[in-house]
Amino acid sequence: MKTTLLFTVALATAFSAPVLAQGAGATLRIDSGSAMVSTGGEFATASSGAQLSSGSRVMLGEGSRSTLVYTNGCTQALNNPGVYSVSATCVAANGAGGSNGAGRAGVDVGGAAIITGVTVAAAAALASMDDVEYVAPPPVSR
Q: How far is CA 15 from CA 11, 25, 74, 105, 111, in A?
């Protein structure tokens, strides 16, 4: 019983990272000019502060500059005209100074640490449980 429960917790934790990443997104900050956003359909004018989910697309015209600000504080500059896709994790430009909260592969290190900590805590809690099988009580005599 304990092994099955441990296996279930391990599977749930392993699949929670991609699920959390799907809903992750960024906030659009328009630095100059204008931006348009598409969530799968036609592009519409966006305002600074718009919340974008991963998979959304941002289109910049000539002379426009915007920044995607992720929840972990990492920023991705959009400096050239074109269409950009909002990724689930921040993809900072090479050579960007400072700490952006993401590892070399663009992985949110803080999120990975939280998921690992939850997994370890659940495994420790399950390991401390007694391995006593359930025994049905005898029937009540009348």
A: 6, 18, 24, 19, 13
Q: Mind listing the pLDDT tens digit for each residue in 76-111?
A: 999 889 999 888 888 665 544 444 444 444 456 666
Is residue 125 scored above 80 in pLDDT?
no
* Alpha carbons 59 and 36: distance in angstroms, whole number: 5
Q: Are strands 82-85 and 57-60 parallel, antiparallel or unpaired?
A: antiparallel
Q: Please count the other Cβ atoms lying within 10 Å of the Cβ belonging to residue 102.
A: 20
For residues 74 and 22, which has the higher predicted lDDT (pLDDT)? 74
Residue 84 is given by DSSP the state: E
Tell me the CA distances in angstroms from 48 to 39, 60, 70, 133, one per residue in order: 16, 13, 14, 59
Check whether 20 has a pLDDT greater than 60: no
What tokens does 76 get? Answer: 């991705």
Torsion angle in degrees (nearest 10) through CA of 101, 104, 109, 113: -150
3-class DSSP state of 16: helix
Instruction: Fill in the amino acid letter for 67.
Output: T
